[in-house]
Sequence to fold (245 residues):
Amino acid sequence: MANESRPCPCDIGDRFDYGGRGQEVQVEHIKAYVCKPPAGTDKAVIVIHDIFGWQLPNTRYIADMLTTNGYIAICPDFFVGQEAWKPSNDWASFEDWVKTRDAGKIDKEVDVVLKYLKDQCGAKKIGVIGFCWGGAAVQHLMLKNPHLKTGVSLYGVIRRFADKHSLLHPTFFIFGEKDDIIPLEQVTLLEQKLKQNCKVDYEVKIYPGQTHGFVHRKREDINPQDKPYIEEGRKDMINWLNKYL
Fold:
């Protein structure tokens, strides 16, 4: 289990020097980063950030990657103006901090974003992906939101929704084998519960040797042995979205 003084090892890792191809917009009470492909499309993906917030360059890099694959991508500020976590913050305060940012209480914001995507962007088929905190939010949405078609949860914190498995939509779960905060026994239990309770398509995949945040917080060129798994995770994410959107 995680060291209690560091309950979430969401280190920025290799913070990308990346400006982003999209633009920031105001969607009712929420700020959001939006990127659209050159060709028109009715497919969109909501990107739910991790604890480092909607402005993290790494997350915008992934949003732009979705756009290069033909999707409208939007990364809203699901903290709604509250400060994102900073690596310099005291980890002893993390649990109190995260209690004020509940991944299971984003429904109002999601409804606003869905309306924007449909009315302003012409989106008809909408999926969602999320990282860490956002991965837990994806699981929450897949359990209850009828307007989303599919989801990809990347190292979503299982314990946030440990007792809920009756998914409404096809969901892909990505985990790293060496993740300090999501032990493999939790992943195994998740698989067992999904097998017992889930009526829709799902997949749980563990990537060998990978740590928390590997898909969006490691540069591909940083370590040759990680590169294939980083690229595989991203490709698997895109393939899942392509299949269900």
Remarks:
- The chain is about 30% helix and 20% strand.
- The chain has one domain: 23-244.
- The domain at 23-244 is CATH 3.40.50.1820 (Rossmann fold).
- The two ends are 36 Å apart (CA to CA).
